[in-house]
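Moderator note: this is an archived Q&A kept for reference. The question asked for a predicted structure of one protein chain; the sequence and the answer are reproduced below.
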Amino acid sequence: MHATVPPQVEYELTDLGRSLTGLVKGLADWSLAHRPQIEAARREWDAKADMPS
């Protein structure tokens, strides 16, 4: 924390937190690469959910 007005705080990942960055980036990359399929699956799900039983 810095003695400023307004108060200011700097955050930093721990080594444990940094160890997740590759995995999170991999998930983000996968989701971007499969975005069209994900969107199509969502549309299909929504269409089925809107159908009367």
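Archived answer notes: The two ends are 57 Å apart (CA to CA).
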